[in-house]
Specification:
Layout: E1 4-7, E2 14-15, H1 17-30, H2 37-42, H3 48-55, H4 61-79, E3 84-85, H5 89-98, E4 102-106, H6 111-121, E5 127-131, H7 144-153, E6 160-164, H8 167-175, E7 179-183, H9 190-195, E8 200-202, H10 205-214, H11 223-227
Parallel strand pairs: 1-4, 1-6, 4-5, 6-7, 7-8
Antiparallel strand pairs: 2-3
Helix pairs in contact: 1-4, 3-4, 5-10
């Protein structure tokens, strides 16, 4: 089993991808940009400024910052209250911790949203460390968030796995020296996550649990055997 588990939050632990995309689309429209939701989803999980550089390359840095500030305000006001934690997160954390694993969160989100997510997860006793958007300037795929989480866990990347819902999570984990695994709850296809380097992909965190427990190439017990004792 891995010694450390670094989890993305949005799209992996909480169901917030569509809310984030809708709030970003609304913010863009306020600045005169009409971007299809499908286009925005291609970059879901990517650092916000990088996303805007790809979708509206003509925008200045000042305009990009203004759009992201507007998006944050719209999200917190209109969408954050509807966000829910995915089923089974606390149970999975309990199993991993019970087997001696140390858990960290590495997420670009910050402030009110991050506090709301922590409350929804209701799993503080299993989380040994957090690295969020308040701690670093650059989001994924920049590996610094994951690297900070690993340093807080005092675990080398070679003994850890990064778990996320996007290819950008996988890229950040690989750059930080971890193995990477993915879940389909963020809307990316299994093939996309496979090609990004994930050694295992599950429909959700519960389905991914055996792979997290036994690693690459290990035996996989029925997940219900582990969750029954959680």
């Amino acid at each position: 089993m891995f010694a450390g588990f670094v989890f993305d939050v949005e799209g992996t632990l909480v169901d917030s991808v569509q809310q984030n995309l809708r709030s970003l689309q609304e913010a863009l429209e306020k600045f005169g940009y009409r971007i299809p939701i499908q286009t925005l989803h291609l970059y879901s999980g990517l650092d916000g400024d990088q996303l805007l550089r790809l979708t509206i390359p003509e925008a200045s840095i000042h305009e990009r910052r203004a759009i992201l500030q507007e998006q944050s305000a719209i999200y917190e006001r209109d969408y954050l209250p509807s966000v829910k934690a995915f089923d089974g997160v606390r149970d999975v954390f309990k199993v991993l911790s019970g087997q001696g694993g140390r858990i960290a969160l590495a997420t670009d989100c910050r402030g009110l949203a991050f506090k709301r997510y922590m409350s929804l997860l209701n799993a503080d006793e299993f989380i040994a460390a957090t690295a969020c958007g308040d701690d670093v300037e650059h989001g994924k795929p920049d590996p610094r968030l994951v690297g900070m989480a690993l340093r807080k866990l005092a675990i080398p990347g070679s003994q850890a796995v990064m778990v996320g819902d996007s290819p950008y999570d996988a890229e950040a984990g690989i750059e930080a020296g971890t193995k990477v695994a993915g879940v389909l709850t963020g809307g990316f296809a299994e093939k996309v996550l496979d090609e990004a380097g994930c050694f295992a992909v599950g429909r959700d965190l519960r389905a991914l649990l055996p792979s997290l427990l036994f690693g690459e190439g290990g035996p996989e017990p029925r997940q219900t055997d582990w969750l029954r004792s959680a």
